[in-house]
Each structure stands twice: as structure tokens, then as C-alpha cells.
Amino acid sequence: MDLDMELGDYPKQFAYEDLQLLTDNFDVRNVIGRTQFCKVYRGKIPQGWNEMQEQDVTVKIWADTVMMKGEIILHPAVAHNVFRFFVLNWQMTRPEDEITFLTYPSISHHPNLAKLMGYLHDEDHFGVVYDLKPLDTVCNFIAEGTFTWMDRIKVIFQLARLLEYLHGQTPQYLVRNFSAAHIMVDQVDMDLNPVLFEFGMLTGGMIGMKDRGLSLYPFAAYGYTDPVLRMLGVWTDRTDVFTFGVVLLELLCKCAVDGIGCRENSIVPNFLYGVAQEIYDTVKSRCFYEQSRILSLVHRSFRTEAGYDTGDGLKLAKLAMKCVQMDDERPSMGEVVEHLKTLHVIRNYAELLLLGP
Predict the structure, then answer these.
(1) Which of 58, 82, 225, 250 could anchor a disulfide with 132, C-beta 3.0 to 4.6 Å?
(2) What's the pLDDT at 285?
(3) Cα-flanking dihedrals φ and ψ of residue 15, to 5°?
(4) Cβ atoms of residues 128 and 116 within 8 Å
(5) DSSP secondary-structure letter at 269?
(6) pTM assigned to the model
(7) Where do the H-state alpha helices sit in the chain?
(8) With contact defined as beta carbons under 8 Å apart, do 243 and 220 qualify?
(9) Cα–Cα distance list, 309 to 295, 300, 330 (Å)
(10) Contact 246, 257 (CB under 8 A)
(11) Cβ neighbour number for residue 344 with a 10 Å cutoff
């Protein structure tokens, strides 16, 4: 796809100065966070600018090309500066693939995928503008008490159905770097819909299969690397299941993927899914089945919240652990969705949560 071709009314082509205007010159107060390869800002289109209505938007800049207020980032931004490598040719084709993907008819209207308003492409910069009114990322909401049990259930269920949809296409899409930092909570009408907005490692579908091996790619987002991927070096749909399981654990535990710290006398990060696995394996090895130990993966503050059911907490903890098991033991995303439909909260509050059939 030629990024400079005529694309009609949408997506629009923006200049770098336009994105400076929308973000108040990339003001640090408008920074939402970083994705694996980009920096993300809140933006606002002024009333009447380019004959447009006033509108809140999300602006994403590929961090390896942008110079902002004296800060020069020469490599893709990865949380905690880990896995800072990639190939230049791949770097330049990924934004192009994102535009191709988001403008494809069967994709462009999906409620949980970012709506592309326009893009920036010049010699020094690449960025996109989404028709997305950002509240915050799921990553930034993980530990927040204001992000309730019901809010989390809605996010979990919609994200599961999104991955089921992407995996169900022919050929299937693989996200490969699904993470809480790559999901925005949209505040339109305060419906709190989760929206995936990072596609830097997307493969399959109508953009074609990108290298499934590790020769040109980072493993995945920091803290979400599938142990099976490390061993075999090949992505499958079960790799996305693993990363979904990690996000599910984060939402249940109110603990970010890297929030556990390091093991004693070690500099190796003690990732959330590893700690959860140790707890789960301990329970499974005992003759007496200790539900309370599995429920310890669910933050105790949820027990007094509206819609919480102990049986649901147990089911979700078990589901999360199934998703992060070895590859041949993981469910498909279709099976995950069917499992979620058995939850008390889904069966009894689907209308309140604005969840379709």
C-alpha cells in the first residue's frame, strides 16, 4: 500500500505540525503511555479546524522516529527498555500494515478495534490519529479501585470475543503482542469499551503472514513472553491465548505483569504469571483441593463489590491458569468465550454490561 495515495475522506493525511497542534506540542501532560513501539497521547481537534468538529482523539507516534522537546529515541520504546531491537525494513512496513488492516471493511467497524482517522508519514516521522476518546489504558487501570469488578468483567469478555473474532478469520490474524498497555478504555458515553490500538506485530489475514519465527522480531511485549514461544520460536493462536491469560491475571490480581519485583538474590524479574503458576501448581499437587489458595489470585477487595460471585472468581482464576499452561493444554479463544458465558455475572448482568449475545 502506498501511504501517499489518495484514500478519500478517511483516513486523512496529517502533517507533523498537525499532530503537534492536536497534542499541544506533545505536551507531557497529554502522554497516556507507551506501547511496545510507540508513544501515545491524548489529543483534541479544535472546533472548525480543517472544517472538523471539536473532538477528542488518540495520537500514536512511532517512537524510533520522533524527536520531541529534545528527547531523541533511536529505538522502539519497550517497557523498561527491554528487547530494544528490530530490523529497519520491518520497522517501516509495520505502520503501513496497520493502515491496511484498519481500513479493511470487515475490520474497520469492529467496536473493539481502533478507528483510524488519519496518519502522518514524512521523511522523519510516522504517526496515526484514532477516532478514540481515551479514558486510559487497561494497564493504568489495573490497580485502580475505581475500575470495578463489573468493569473488569466487561473488558475481559469483550477482549476474549475480539481475539476469537481475529483468530476466526481466514486466514487467521495473530496479534502476538497483546498486552494491557495496548488496550485503551474508551470513555464515549462512559461505556468503558476496551479498544485494541497497537498492531506492531500483527500477522495474517489480509496483510499476509509475516515471519512466524523469531529471526526479525522481538518476542512480545515485556512480561508477556510465552515460554513455549521461547522454546519453539514459532507463534500460534495459543500464543495470543497466553497473553490474554496474563491480562486476565492482571485484572484479577490488581497487579501489573511486572509488579512482583525480583526473586531473592536475583535481578531476574519475577513475572506475575510465574508467581501465579507456583501457587496453582502447589494447589494441584495436594490431595485436598484448596479453593481458597486458587481464590488468592483474585484480589480480596472484589468480594464486597456488586456482581461479584465466589464461584465466578474461582472459574476465572482457573481459566487464567489454563491460558498460561503449556501450549497443548491451552483452550482456544472460542473455548475461552464459551467458558466466560457460564459466569454468574455474565448470565445475570449481560444487559447492564452492554454485552451482546
Answers:
(1) 58
(2) 55
(3) -95, 160
(4) yes
(5) B
(6) 0.85
(7) 16-22, 88-102, 105-108, 138-141, 149-167, 227-232, 237-253, 272-284, 291-295, 310-323, 333-340, 344-349
(8) yes
(9) 11, 12, 25
(10) yes
(11) 14
Euclidean distance between the first and the last CA atom of the chain, given in angstroms as a whole number = 36
Percent pLDDT > 90 in the chain is 54
- Which amino acid does the sequence have at 85? F
Q: C-alpha distances in angstroms, 117 versus 120, 163, 194?
A: 11, 23, 18
298 closest CA partner among 350, 250, 347, 261: 250
The one-letter amino acid code at 99 reads I
Nearest residue to 323 (alpha-carbon basis) of 259, 237, 257: 237
The pLDDT-based confidence of 270 (bands split at 50, 70, 90) is low
Which residues is 130 bridged to in the sheet? 58, 116
Of the ranges 123-132, 211-220, 238-247, which one carries the lowest mean pLDDT score? 211-220
303 grid coordinates = 468480594
The whole-angstrom separation of Cα 126 and Cα 118 is: 11
Q: 249, 184 in Cβ contact below 8 A?
A: no
DSSP for residue 113:
B
Reading the block at residue 185, the C-alpha cell is: 478504555
- Tens of pLDDT, residue by residue over 306-339, are 999 999 999 999 999 999 988 778 999 999 999 9
Q: Which residue has the cell 490431595?
A: 287
Segment 44-60, tens digit of pLDDT = 999 988 888 899 999 99
Q: pLDDT class for 277, splitting at 50, 70, 90? A: confident
Which H or E run includes 121? strand 116-121
* Chain position carrying cell 501511504: 3
Q: Is the pLDDT of residue 17 over 50?
A: yes
Distance CA 45, CA 33 (A): 20
**164-175 pLDDT, tens digit each:** 999 999 999 999
User: What is the chain's percent helix, strand, coil content, to nearest 5?
Assistant: 40, 15, 45
| Three-state DSSP state, 17 | helix
Helix (H) or strand (E) holding 71: strand 71-72
Sheet containing 193-196: which strands, arranged edge to edge? Answer: 134-137, 183-186, 193-196
